[in-house]
Amino acid sequence: MHKKFFTYLLQYLEASITLIDALGLVRKKFVRKKDLEKIDTCIYLVGEGKFVQEAMSSIVENIQGKAAVLVILKSAEKTGDYKTAFKRICEYLDMGDTVKKEFIESLTYPLLILFVSIVISYGIVSFIFPKIIPLFTSLGVELPLPTVIILFVVNWIESHVVQILLFSGIIFFSVKYVYQNYKEVRAVVQNNLLKIPGVRQFVLVHSSIHISNTVLALVTSGRSLPESFRVALEDVYFVSVKNDLESIVLLHEQGMTLFQSLGESKYFSKTIWVDFLMIGERTGNVQNSFVQISRLYMEDLISYKKILKTWSEPVLMLFIALIVLFVALSVIKPMYSIVNHVSST
Q1: What is the pTM of this model?
Q2: SS3 sequence, the chain?
């Protein structure tokens, strides 16, 4: 809803329509009751003379970058230039959607292959095995260990499916509750994930894209660099990365240049952040530094997607081959035993 809302609102404002009338026209573009209620609330608050930031807070809830969008709207209230503000918001949300799309695409193919392989294997065991196993047993053929294991696992799952689903649900929601409500547990899990080279690099790339885009949007809206950084940090998910960046902002506020404070960082001291911000602060064009940082990290994200796809194909093929081999042995070995049994009789 969010991107669509601000895109239509910008189009109507560029047509010299007042904000309250533009909101009324935007409302006609939506049909979901929940969306209409949010827009109605926004129209009412604007009509009552409330600040646009307050009126649109319900529109931008539950999105990454909510704090940044609200700060941009707050800056627009001081200048009265809502067109520019909505344009920046659209660009900001569009970049966030692009990052999300790249992330989803990087995982879609491997997960699809994995799902298909599991479904095929389960289909073979559930529909083919029941037809051929009675033949083996009727001839007195001893079933090999792979066949016995598969039959035991499948039969056990089918006979305890309700208990398995119930237990899995309890475990899932319990873990989710503990993870979301206990910061210490979340920090331990995240720190262990960051020890994995691929995961660590991906988290830093994703965080860098988000922070650079947010800071750029806020600085161009007239906010100070430290304030822009602090707003951007509100949406950084990994606790240790967030704490590391907060220490960077604190050092900058105490008098260090931004690239010098980044040199003290645990995660960003050896990244392109240092070089580009050093150039930006010396030339007085920090905004361009954030543009280049975002662009380069976006290229890295696309490269990681290609690498993941390249490496996932042989790994998943090997996984599927092992499943097929195991299932095949479960069928072929009893058939071989039947041949030997017939030959001996």
Answers
A1: 0.69
A2: CHHHHHHHHHHHHHCCCCHHHHHHHHHCCCCCHHHHHHHHHHHHHHHCCCCHHHHCCCCCCCCCCHHHHHHHHHHHHHHCCHHHHHHHHHHHHHHHHHHHHHHHHHHHHHHHHHHHHHHHHHHHHHHHHHHHHHHHHHCCCCCCHHHHHHHHHHHHHHHCHHHHHHHHHHHHHHHHHHHHHCHHHHHHHHHHHHCCHHHHHHHHHHHHHHHHHHHHHHHCCCCCHHHHHHHHHCCCCCHHHHHHHHHHHHHHHCCCCHHHHHCCCCCCCCCHHHHHHHHHHHHCCHHHHHHHHHHHHHHHHHHHHHHHHHHHHHHHHHHHHHHHHHHHHHHHHHHHHHHHHHHHC
